[in-house]
């Protein structure tokens, strides 16, 4: 599942007319970079949720056949359901097995294939953590030696927006507007949340400056390889 329902306030005025994941970087939408990476890692069945200007997603992306993907859309009304609400709303499409969730506004070279069997049978979520960017210096979660997520470790890392979830994490919850963090905190408290650190390229494209920097990087790379 690619999360694409956010309003993108910090990217206004660009997002007044275009959803954040459809903004161009290197001559293609941010979300297309992710779709291509996921397909190359073996994830062909992809659910995309949307809210703000949501009709643009199927209009731009279609059914995904051009990337050898099968795209299904999960529409959210009234401004979106936040992360947990959006996932719960899409559960009838996602099914009963663990599934990968990726934020639609990140840029990374993370090897998604590593997550095809990353969730242990007795765990509810497995999150990929990364370096703390300048705008989030304190991080989110620590890791124990056993690979469990922890809130009290000396070194905290930033949640990358990449995670694997079991549907039981959301059991019994309706699809109203609902954040994800309280569910993660409950899973951490009961030792049902694991994680891993990724030290490769990662950035959340949450501001105009970061989008412009990524665009320059990709265009220069494309020029160099031409």
From TrEMBL:
Transmembrane segments: none
Annotated keywords: Nucleotidyltransferase, Transferase
Pfam families recorded: NTP_transferase (PF00483)
Any one Gene Ontology molecular-function term assigned to this protein's record: glucose-1-phosphate thymidylyltransferase activity
EC code(s) of this entry: 2.7.7.24
Source superkingdom: Bacteria
The keyword Disulfide bond appears for this protein: no
Cross-referenced InterPro entries: GlmU-like (IPR050065), MurU (IPR054790), NTP_transferase_dom (IPR005835), Nucleotide-diphossugar_trans (IPR029044)
Nucleotidyl transferase domain boundaries: 1-128
Entries under PANTHER family matching the protein: N-ACETYLMURAMATE ALPHA-1-PHOSPHATE URIDYLYLTRANSFERASE, NUCLEOTIDYL TRANSFERASE
Protein name: Glucose-1-phosphate thymidylyltransferase
